[in-house]
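It is worth pausing here to work through a concrete case rather than discussing structure prediction in the abstract. The textbook approach is simple: state the sequence, then state the predicted structure, then interpret. We follow exactly that order.
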Amino acid sequence: MAKKAKKPISKPKKKGSSKKKKSGNIFTKILVFIFIIVLAFFLIFSIFKPSGKKNTEKPATKQVTTEVKKETKVVESQNDKKDKEDKQDKKDKIDKKEEKKSAETKSVAKSIKGTWQSTTGGAFLTMDGKEFRLDFMGVDSDKPIIGTYSVDGDLITFVNKKDPCKDVKGLYEVRFNKNEIGFKCKSDECTKRKATLPTDWEWLDTEE
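Step two, the predicted structure:
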């Protein structure tokens, strides 16, 4: 009889080694998972980490506002300077005008002093610097008109001391023509004075 071949005896598997292998794989997976989580955390932190430097740059709106304020101050300063110059120019013009008027007043006041005869005849006008006198010629002549006068540039204001027209003011503009003066009525409610003064008057040399 042929002998039966013996079956190789398989060694029993060690239970401990398979357990170690499985636990090693799980541990490795856990380590890899932790590493991935840590790496992801660092990446996220590095992206969203606030910068340590302070932002010294001014926002655009603040820069624009600051520039506008500076420009406004410059414009206001220029306007103030211009206003001061304009006021000074006006003051200078007024002063010059007043000086001119004052000089004209003195010249007119000096020029009208004396005795004048109406070119139409019938009246004499005497002016001494403060007072005036209107004398009328003829047998039926009226009483003289006596009063005061004041000069302002080329304007003369007459005021009667007595009737007719006591204290009534009359405003006249005076003009010169060689040895003659003329009066143009601006306003006068005294009928007698208004009828006499607006004419040409010739200077009368009273000196001998």
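Step three, interpretation. The beta strands are 114-118, 123-127, 131-136, 145-152, 155-160, 169-177, 180-188, 200-203. Helices lie at 15-48, 60-111, 191-196.
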